[in-house]
Amino acid sequence: MSNKHHLELTQVGMDFPTPKGPFNALQDVNLRINKGEFISLIGHSGCGKSTVLNIVAGLYKATKGGVILDNQEVNEPGPERAVVFQNHSLLPWLSAYKNVELAVKQTQNGRSKKEMKEWVEHNLELVHMSHAADKLPAEISGGMKQRVGIARALAMEPKVLLMDEPFGALDALTRAHLQDSVMEIHAKLGNTVIMITHDVDEAVLLSDRIVMMTNGPAATIGEILPIELARPRNRIELADNPQYNHYRHEVLKFLYEKQRKVESVEEHRKKQSEQKSGATQINVA
Amino acid sequence: MSKQQAVPMIFNQVRQMNWPTLNQFLSATALPIVGIVVFLGLWSLMAKNIDTSLGSFPGPAAVWQQANVLVGEHNAQMDKADKFYERQDERNAVRVAKDPSYEPKIRNFTGAPTFFEQIWTSLYTVMVGFIVASLLAIPIGILCGLSKNAYTAINPLIQLFKPVSPLAWLPLVTMVVSAVYVSTDPMFSKSFITSAVTVSLCCLWPTLINTAVGVSSIDKDLLNVSKVLRLNAWSHVMKIVLPSSIPAIFTGLRLSLGIGWMVLIAAEMLAQNPGLGKFVWDEFQNGSSESLARIMVAVLTIGVIGFALDRLMLALQRKFSWDKSAVLR
Ligand SMILES: Nc1ncnc2c1ncn2[C@@H]1O[C@H](COP(=O)(O)OP(=O)(O)OP(=O)(O)O)[C@@H](O)[C@H]1O
Ligand SMILES: [Mg+2]
Fold it and tell me: Where is this region: Disordered (chain A) (predicted)?
C-alpha cells in the first residue's frame, strides 16, 4: 500500500456530551501531515485546538472521522504520540532524571540497563538540563520544568510530538530560549511535531505550516499557511525579513479580521474553570 | 581592637542576632511551659475544693506520688518474676541432674499485670488493629477512588457503618470471636482479638474515605501521562496513584489512629479486656483512697501516648510525603 502521508486526520468531528445536550466542538477537520513536518495550530481560545491534539494523542475519541498514523488507526494513547502538556505535568515526587527514566523504562525498545541510563542522560542533555537531573520539579523553574517535560516526551522516541501550548506559561525570554532549543532538536531528530500556540511569532518562527482554526462551535480548519523560510532560522535576522513579516501579517489578518472573537477572555476563563472543577469533584459527605 | 570597643560590638551582636532567636525560643518552648504551669495551678486549686466519696480530688502532687508508686509496683513485680524463673531453673536443673531423661517444665509467671504491662497491651492492641484496618482501607479506598462504579457500590456501606459507635459492635465482636476463634493453643488471647477487631472497625473509615478522595482528585494531566506511557494497572497505581495520594492517605491514617486509641480504652473498660481501660475500671471498682489519683495517672498516660502516636504518624508522613512544602501539624 502506498503511504504518501505520515499522519492523516480525516473528517474528524467531536461532540462533547453536556447537560444541555451534545456540544459540537469540531467538525470536518481534515489534515495531512508529512513525516518530519512542524505544524502549528493557532486559533482563538476555546476554538478546539486542544481537542484536536487530544484526539491525535488518543486521549479523546473522535465522535466522527478518525486519525491514521503510518497506516494504523489511532484509538488509544501511546508513547509513539508523546505529549508535552502545558503545565509540564512532571510527577512531583520524582527528580528530573527519574521522570525521564519512567518514560524510558516504559518504552524500553530492547535497551539494557546501561543503555537506558545513557538514553535518559542523552535526552536531558538535549534540552540542556543535565545539571539539574537530580532536582525535584518543585526545585526548578517553570522553563526548566518544561524542558524536562520535553526531554521526557523525546525519550519515548515518538513518531509524533504533540505540544499543547508548551511555552504558554513562560516569560518571553525563557520562551525564546526554549523555542531555539525546540528548533535545534527538530533539526537534529526530524520528529513530526504538532504544536498549539497563541503566539503568532512563535508559529511563524518554528513552523513548516501554520494551521489556522475557525472559531467554535463546530470549529474547523480555516486556512493553512505554508512557511517557506530557510532553516536554520534566526529570530534576529528574521525580524526585518519582508517574507517573515508577510507571514505574520497573514496570520494576524486571519485571527483579527476573518475570525474576530466575540467572547471576552474573562468569560472564557470562567467557562474553563467551571469545566475543570466539575470534572474533578467527587462527593463524599 | 581594644577591649572597650569589643564589648559594645558584642552587645550589638546580641541585640541584632540573639533577639529573634530568643523570641523563637520564647514562643516555641516557654509558651507551652506557661500553659502547663497555669494548668497545674488551676488543677491543684480546684482539686482541693472537690470532695468525693473517695476523699478529695487528687491534685498534681498526689498524682505524681501515685505515678511513683505504680513504677515501684512494677519493679517489685518484675523482681518477683525474675526470682520465680530463677527458682524454676534451679528446680529443673536439679531434676535433670538426677534423671537426664527428664524434660524440664517451663511455666510462665502469672502475676497480676502491672500498670506498664497494661500500657504495653493497649499499645500493642491498637497498633495491630490499626495496621489491619489500614491494610484493608487503603486498597479499598484506592479502588473507590479509581472506579466510580466501585465507589457507588461501596458508598452506601461506608455511610451506613461510619457513624456506628464501635462500642455497639463490641458485644457482636465478642460473641463472634468466641464462636469462631477456637483453638486449643491460641496464639492470641480472645480478649486481644476482640479489642483489636473493635479498633479496626473504627479505624477503617477515615483512612478509606480520605484515600478515596485523594485518589479521585489526582491531577488530570498526571493521569494523561500515565495513559500516554501506557502504564499497566499495577504500575499506574504504584507509580502515579499511590504517590499522588500519599498526603491524603496520611491525613486519614492520623485520624484513624487517634480514633482507634480513644475507642480502645473505652472497649477495654466495657469488655474488661486487658489494657489501660481495664486498669481504669479496676481502680474505679477498687475504690480505695488512692484510686482517683491512680486513675488520673492513667488518664494522663493515655493522653501522652495519644499525643506520641500522632507525632509518630506525623514523622512518618514527613518521611514519606514528597510535598515537603506542605505545612504539617
Ligand atoms: N470535556 C469537555 N466537555 C465539554 N466541552 C468541552 C470539553 N472539552 C472542551 N470542551 C469545549 O470544546 C471547545 C474547545 O475546547 P478546547 O479546549 O479544545 O479549546 P482550545 O482551543 O484548546 O482553547 P484554549 O486555547 O483556551 O486552550 C470549548 O468550547 C470547550 O468549552
Ligand atoms: Mg487548549
Answer: 265-285
CATH number of the domain enclosing B232: 1.10.3720.10
CA distance A79 to chain B (A): 5
Residue B165 CA to residue B134 CA, distance in Å, equals 19
| Structure confidence at residue A285 (pLDDT) | 37
* CATH number belonging to the domain at A1-77+196-285, selected among 3.40.50.10490, 3.90.226.10, 2.30.40.10, 3.40.50.300: 3.40.50.300
Ion ligand 2 residues within 5 Å by Cβ:
A 50
Please check whether residue B166 lies inside any domain of the structure.
Answer: yes
Q: What ipTM was reported for this prediction?
A: 0.84
CA of residue B118 relative to chain centroid, distance: 13
Question: Is residue A220 pLDDT above 70, yes or no?
Answer: yes
* Ligand 1 close to Cβ of residue A85 (< 6 A): no
The maximal CA–CA distance of chain A, rounded, in angstroms, is 63
Type of residue found at B208 = L
Q: Which amino acid is at A93?
A: W
Cβ–ligand 1 distance for A81 under 6 Å, the answer: no
Inter-chain touch B229–A103, beta carbons under 8 Å:
yes
**Residue B239 lies inside a defined structural domain of this protein:** yes
Per the structure, how many domains does chain B have? 1
Query: Please, are residues B230 and A158 in contact by the beta-carbon 8 Å criterion?
Result: no
* pLDDT averaged over 10-residue windows placed end to end, chain B, 329 residues: 53 57 78 90 88 84 90 88 88 85 80 86 94 96 93 91 85 88 79 92 93 93 93 93 93 94 92 90 86 91 94 90 69
Amino acid symbol at B97: A
Cell numbers for B300, please give them.
Answer: 494522663
How many alpha carbons fall within 13 Å on the CB side of residue B148? 6
Domain that holds residue B146: 125-320
Phi, psi of B77 (to 5 degrees): -60, -40
List the Cα angle B45/B49/B52 in 5-degree steps.
130
Taking an 8 Å cut-off on Cβ atoms, the answer to whether B229 and A107 are in contact is yes
**Range list of H helices, B162-275:** 166-180, 190-216, 220-228, 233-235, 242-271
Residue B223 lies in a domain: yes
Domain ranges of chain A: 1-77+196-285
Give the whole-angstrom CA distance, residue B23 versus residue A190.
Answer: 61
For A21-36, the DSSP string reads S-EEEEEEEEEEE-TT
Residue B187 phi/psi, 5-degree rounding, is -75, -40
Assigned domain for B310 exists: yes
**Strand partners for A225:** A210
- Least Cα distance to B162 among A284, A67, A182 occurs for A284
Other CB atoms within 10 A of residue A69 CB: 20
B170: cell is 463490641
User: Which of A220, A221, A141, A234 has its CA nearest to residue A184?
Assistant: A234
Beta strand A209-213 pairing with A23-33: unpaired
CA torsion, points A97, A100, A105, A106, in degrees to nearest 10? Answer: 150
- Separation between Cα atoms, residue A233 and residue A210, nearest integer Å: 16
Nearest to A8 by CA among A28, A33, A38: A33
Q: A83 to chain B: which residues are within 8 Å by CB?
A: 224-225, 228
How far apart, in whole angstroms, are the C-alpha atoms of residue B264 and residue A169? 52
